[in-house]
């Protein structure tokens, strides 16, 4: 079909007012319709104005402050046991009570943010890198590379990430680097699917053909031509996966394959205390659980608002 | 709730006007500031009258349609003036009255029929809905739907009703949409670029259908188009819009033959006319740029681009001058408009035409077969062509004829079938670009149709052009910088454009960047795949002039693909006509246009509406283009050919290409004297004098 474009349809937003003629468009672009810098500034403005983003950012910043400066304001040493004051309910001395070894739950929750806030973002970053490279290769070359790696990815995706992670951690031994690598690679496979889809759309555009017609190599076309155009979905994927990564780290710690006691950690603390729930010691489990829930919620709020801004 | 009885809200048949727009102002609110987009738009459409609004993008045509249907975007609102439909004030209508107005009195047909229909519902369901809205029962509505499709000359309504939109061609879909629009017998039918997305042959059919329906239903029509010739053909009266104003209004024939506003004059000169050729006369362009929306300059809105403007024009806003005979123009100088000085010199300084006897590129028996779902589709069949330095080959045909496949095969983006030969400067080159040498890549470049797709939106103009200079011309450092500025100047862009990204440029500037990139390696052959079809006529004229200049300077050969025969004719030295991947006719441009024609060429030529309204009788083609997966036996064109032989030869034997006049080949069984000649009289094409602008008449 001849795709002659002529109609002047003003969109709902009048930034795209009907104007196509040379200067008019250029003027409009300078005014704000098209310039990428302008778009980015506009996106940031929209983000900062969105309540969702602000709430998410507040929650996440709170935990980051805890992780970085928690040592300065924690009421007690989270490792100090006080066997004379075990399983104390919340009181003025211990706002979140004490656990089965008499450690202060509040201090453990504050310091417990450290490991998870190192492991989860690093794992997500690794996953994003792996997923981007893999997705670019699959989407750009398609054919055999895509078919082979695609099936492997499908096989992995058929199992929950935690189960796969399990296998590898058991094989490699539980440690923080293992945790990062295992979660990172697992997410990389998931992210590669999203990147691949975006690349498949991009590679049909004529600028890719133009690159081929000036003899560009595949690497240049993938990373210099296509990659900048698929950054949007990659950023969204990063924020979404970060939430999942926090959950995965907490789950693995809970199961004993992540951060090892006595290092304060929400997942392993829940594991260590949940058996006492029946005895009525709810505070030992509740507060680390709330911490996990709030961090994931905060990250997801940020992710959602970034996604809506980028997709807009 | 009771449904309105039919006719209850239908406007009084004796209302003086089907539509009356008086002093309409529309503004869009952007960041809290009102920007006036339409200013004092006034026009009437009498009952049964057909009124055209013509203008380039951004002139406010579509905003006018949206205002008339009260479908302005949320931030748009009418700030002054009024609209009456059939004598009823549109602006004071409540939601229920509006709904009834839209379901009964005013119908709109948009540009893209594919987007006007729901892809997941059968056509029957969608057409029937129109009748259900007006109160028919479900079964009655289905019956009336079938009737409606017959009205728009759909031969097999039963099949169409059972189809989903994706199973039908664009022309068929547009018929369905028109059937739905006309079904309720509206008093006003609004057609917003209804044929822009269609091929010329289909466009001609749809236009004829609209004319026939107008007769039959006596509907008033508001016809919106950027295509002057279409408006000239379809409308009794016309309004020419520019930057939110109607600058000239009057009977269509008179406006186009004797324009009285400088903008109309300029617009008409931008369109290549019959007899105008690149070696005889440059296209004129309209200098300067459209003012930004909402910017209301002092004085005449067109003054900054008008060669006639004087101090008065720049300080005082001209009133609508009544010129008598129903004509008006918003210009102080309407009596001098016809003598508007050209903005481009008329004379063309062209280098020599073909000088070398060695072809720069040669195609021998090039075929391309795609296989999909176990079917093989022959997109190109045994195409042989030769091109010489400095000449232009025009490639024409309907969509799906293999034009784009030909371009991709040439460039090596798609590999031709084994046995095909593409020879560049006498050397046979590998079928795929990845296997070609950098030198071969350099020699063969392309300007794509859509610069939005062809330019990487994340890269600056500097990056886009200099990367190509590095790769193809092997330049770096100061030499690269110098050449970069040279090329930029050659496409008439400025250094300030270098750091910009494509999104910051207008359509015309983007296409200039694409052309700069294509010329960076100093190619010998440049494929232009519909390079101006996404542009407005005034921008198109500038781009075509640029291409001609560059060709005469660089001696580059163009393969110019276009559905616009006027443009092809202006530029081409030779023409090849493709149908279902086969060459139907190939030869020097003059002889292809002069005839005798292949029946398919004849149909294509006759389908193009002429601005002066002197178009020859249209040769009708039956049915749709057959599927290339299953081409007809014998001559592939026989299923649609109006001249096929009665003895059945055409159905059984594929005609060979035979030379009919020196250098021109045809694929047809018919004897030469039986073929049509649309332009037997070549006289008007003999010199620049005869090709002078119509305004001077």
- Could you tell me the mean pLDDT of chain B? 85
Which bin fits the share of residues in helices of chain B?
Answer: 25-40%
Highest-level CATH class of chain A: Mainly Alpha
Q: How do the strands of the widest beta sheet of chain B line up side by side?
A: 6-7-8-3-9-10-12-11
Count of DSSP H/I helices of chain A: 13
Concise synopsis of the structure shown:
The complex is a heterodimer of chains A (312) and B (697). Chain A has 312 residues and is mainly alpha-helical.
Description:
The complex is a heterodimer of chains A (312) and B (697). Chain A has 312 residues and is mainly alpha-helical. Chain A has a single domain (66-79, 96-311), classed as MetI-like fold (Orthogonal Bundle), CATH 1.10.3720. Chain A has 13 helices and no strands. The relative contact order of chain A is 0.13. With 697 residues, chain B is α/β, with parallel strands linked by helices. Chain B folds into four domains: 19-245, P-loop containing nucleotide triphosphate hydrolases (Rossmann fold); 259-339, no CATH class; 361-577, P-loop containing nucleotide triphosphate hydrolases (Rossmann fold); 595-678, no CATH class. Chain B contains 23 helices and 24 strands. Residues 1-13 and 681-697 of chain B have low confidence and may be disordered. Classes of the chains: A mainly alpha (312), B alpha/beta (697). At the A-B interface, helix 1 and helix 9 of A face strand 1, helix 1, strand 18, helix 16 and helix 18 of B.
Produce the secondary structure layout.
The complex is a heterodimer of chains A (312) and B (697).
Chain A (H helix, E strand, L loop, with lengths): L21 H10 L4 H14 L1 H23 L31 H7 L1 H29 L1 H15 L3 H12 L3 H27 L3 H8 L4 H9 L4 H24 L11 H8 L9 H29 L1
Helix pairs in contact in A: 3-5, 3-13, 4-13, 5-6, 5-8, 5-10, 5-11, 6-8, 7-8, 8-11, 11-12, 11-13, 12-13
Chain B lengths: L18 E12 L2 E13 L4 E5 L6 H8 L7 E10 L2 E2 L5 H11 E4 L3 H4 L6 H11 L4 H14 L5 H6 L7 H14 L4 E5 L7 H18 L2 E6 L2 H7 L2 E6 L2 E7 H6 L4 H9 L40 H5 L5 E4 L2 E3 L31 E12 L2 E13 L4 E5 L6 H9 L9 E4 L2 E2 L9 H6 E4 L3 H4 L6 H13 L3 H14 L16 H13 L5 E5 L7 H18 L2 E5 L3 H7 L2 E6 L2 E7 H6 L4 H9 L41 H4 L4 E5 L2 E4 L30
Parallel strand pairs in B: 3-8, 3-9, 6-7, 7-8, 15-20, 15-21, 18-19, 19-20
Antiparallel strand pairs in B: 1-2, 1-4, 4-5, 9-10, 10-12, 11-12, 13-14, 13-16, 16-17, 21-22, 22-24, 23-24
């Amino acid at each position: 079909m001849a795709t002659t474009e002529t109609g002047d349809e003003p969109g709902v937003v009048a930034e795209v007012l009907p104007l196509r003629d040379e200067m008019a468009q250029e003027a409009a672009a300078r005014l704000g319709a098209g310039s990428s810098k302008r778009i980015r500034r506009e996106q940031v403005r929209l983000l900062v104005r969105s309540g969702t983003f602000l709430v998410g950012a507040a929650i996440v910043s709170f935990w980051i402050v805890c992780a970085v400066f928690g040592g300065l304001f924690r009421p007690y040493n989270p490792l100090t046991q006080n066997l004379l004051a075990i399983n104390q309910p919340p009181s003025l001395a211990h706002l979140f009570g004490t656990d089965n070894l008499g450690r202060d739950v509040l201090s453990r929750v504050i310091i417990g943010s450290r490991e998870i806030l190192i492991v989860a973002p690093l794992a997500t970053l690794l996953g994003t890198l792996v997923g981007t490279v893999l997705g670019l290769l699959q989407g750009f070359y398609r054919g055999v590379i895509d078919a082979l790696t695609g099936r492997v990815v499908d096989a992995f995706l058929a199992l929950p990430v935690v189960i796969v992670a399990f296998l590898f951690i058991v094989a490699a031994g539980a440690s923080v680097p293992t945790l990062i690598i295992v979660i990172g690679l697992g997410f990389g496979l998931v992210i590669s699917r999203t990147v691949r889809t975006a690349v498949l759309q991009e590679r049909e555009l004529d600028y890719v053909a133009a690159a081929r017609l000036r003899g560009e190599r595949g690497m240049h076309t993938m990373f210099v031509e296509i990659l900048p155009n698929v950054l949007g979905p990659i950023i969204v994927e990063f924020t979404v996966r970060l939430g999942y990564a926090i959950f995965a780290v907490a789950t693995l710690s809970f199961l004993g394959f992540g951060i090892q006691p006595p290092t304060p950690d929400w997942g392993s603390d829940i594991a260590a205390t949940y058996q006492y729930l029946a005895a009525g010691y709810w505070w030992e489990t509740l507060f680390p659980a709330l911490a996990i829930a709030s961090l994931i919620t905060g990250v997801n709020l940020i992710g959602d608002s970034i996604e809506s801004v980028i997709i807009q | 709730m009771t449904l309105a009885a039919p006719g209850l809200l239908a406007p009084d048949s004796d209302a003086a006007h089907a539509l009356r727009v008086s002093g309409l102002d529309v503004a869009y609110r952007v960041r809290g500031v009102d920007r006036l987009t339409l200013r004092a738009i006034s026009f009437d459409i009498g009952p049964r009258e057909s009124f055209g609004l013509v203008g380039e993008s951004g002139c406010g045509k579509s905003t006018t349609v949206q205002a008339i249907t009260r479908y302005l975007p949320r931030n748009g609102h009418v700030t002054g003036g009024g609209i009456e439909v059939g004598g009823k004030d549109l602006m004071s209508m409540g939601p229920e009255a509006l709904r009834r107005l839209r379901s009964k009195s005013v119908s709109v047909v948009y540009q893209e029929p594919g987007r006007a229909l729901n892809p997941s519902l059968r056509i029957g369901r969608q057409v029937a809905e129109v009748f259900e809205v007006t109160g028919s029962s479900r079964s009655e509505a289905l019956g009336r739907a079938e009737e409606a499709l017959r009205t728009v000359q759909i031969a097999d309504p039963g099949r169409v009703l059972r189809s989903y939109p994706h199973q039908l061609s664009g022309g068929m879909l547009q018929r369905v949409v028109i059937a739905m629009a006309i079904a309720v017998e509206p008093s006003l039918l609004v057609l917003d670029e209804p044929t822009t997305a269609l091929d010329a042959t289909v466009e001609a059919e749809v236009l004829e259908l609209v004319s026939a329906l107008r007769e039959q239903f006596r509907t008033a029509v508001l016809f919106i188009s950027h295509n002057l010739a279409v408006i000239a053909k379809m409308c009794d009266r016309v309004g020419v819009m520019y930057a939110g104003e109607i600058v000239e209004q009057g009977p269509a024939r008179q406006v186009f033959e004797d324009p009285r506003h400088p903008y109309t004059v300029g617009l008409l000169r931008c369109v290549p006319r019959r007899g105008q050729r690149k070696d005889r006369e440059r296209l004129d362009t309209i200098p300067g740029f459209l003012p930004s929306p909402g910017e209301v300059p002092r004085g005449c809105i067109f003054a900054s681009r008008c060669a006639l403007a004087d101090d008065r024009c720049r300080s005082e806003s001209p009133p609508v001058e009544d010129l008598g005979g129903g004509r008006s123009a918003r210009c102080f100088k309407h009596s001098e408009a016809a003598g508007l000085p050209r903005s481009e010199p008329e004379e063309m300084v062209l280098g020599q035409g073909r000088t070398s006897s060695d072809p720069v590129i040669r195609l021998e028996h090039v075929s391309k077969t795609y296989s999909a779902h176990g079917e093989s589709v022959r997109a190109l069949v045994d195409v042989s062509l030769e091109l010489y330095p400095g000449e232009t080959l025009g490639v024409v045909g309907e969509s799906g004829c293999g034009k784009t496949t030909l371009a991709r095969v040439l460039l090596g983006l798609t590999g031709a079938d084994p046995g095909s030969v593409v020879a560049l400067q006498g050397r046979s080159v590998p079928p795929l670009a990845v296997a070609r040498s950098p030198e071969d890549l350099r020699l063969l470049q392309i300007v794509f149709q859509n610069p939005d797709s062809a330019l990487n939106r994340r890269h600056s103009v500097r990056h886009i052009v200099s990367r190509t200079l590095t790769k193809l011309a092997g330049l770096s450092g100061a030499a690269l910088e110098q050449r970069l500025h040279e090329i930029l100047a050659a496409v008439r862009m400025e250094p300030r454009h270098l750091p910009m990204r494509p999104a910051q440029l207008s359509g015309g500037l983007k296409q200039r960047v694409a052309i700069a990139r294509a010329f960076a390696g100093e190619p010998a052959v440049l494929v232009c795949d519909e390079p101006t079809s996404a542009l407005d006529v005034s921008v198109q004229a500038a781009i075509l002039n640029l291409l001609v200049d560059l060709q005469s300077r660089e001696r580059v050969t163009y393969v110019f693909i276009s559905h616009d025969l006027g443009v092809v004719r202006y530029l081409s030295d030779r023409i090849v006509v493709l149908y279902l991947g086969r060459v139907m006719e190939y030869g020097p441009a003059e002889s292809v246009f002069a005839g005798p024609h292949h029946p398919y060429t004849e149909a294509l030529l006759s389908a193009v509406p002429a601005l002066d309204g002197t178009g020859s009788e249209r040769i009708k083609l039956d049915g749709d283009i057959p599927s290339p997966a299953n081409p007809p036996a014998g001559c592939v064109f026989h299923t649609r050919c109006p001249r096929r032989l009665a003895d059945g030869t055409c159905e059984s034997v594929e005609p060979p290409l035979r030379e009919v006049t020196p250098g021109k080949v045809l694929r047809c069984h018919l004897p030469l004297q039986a073929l049509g000649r649309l332009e037997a009289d070549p006289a008007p094409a003999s010199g620049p004098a005869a090709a002078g602008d119509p305004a001077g008449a």
